[in-house]
């Protein structure tokens, strides 16, 4: 039934602000931009920004995108905050890996993910 991921899309309320965040703060490559839909790419995965009236929902249930950092989570945390990223917690350790939660410019939950230490 499923043969892979075609795209991941994220709801946004301000397209210009969201594109600037994903491009300038996270360093993703901008592929296309319009008022209603923009596409950025990282590691072969296409991320679509979809304009709508409200980016977040009080009902919950939204997906969280986990990004693989270029370096250590600690180094990337410092880079993320220096570029204006909003952390929502500290680095947490789990048997399945380490995560650092943050939000994008539209209030969507994101995180950096690192595999567990050997």
UniProtKB/TrEMBL annotation:
Q: Which domain of life is it from?
A: Bacteria
In residue numbers, the region (Disordered) covers 53-118
Q: Which Gene3D superfamilies match?
A: 2,3-Dihydroxybiphenyl 1,2-Dioxygenase, domain 1
> Which Pfam families does the record cross-reference, listed alphabetically?
Glyoxalase
Q: Where is the composition biased (Basic and acidic residues)?
A: 91-106
The segment(s) forming the VOC domain are 4-115
Q: What is this protein called?
A: VOC family protein
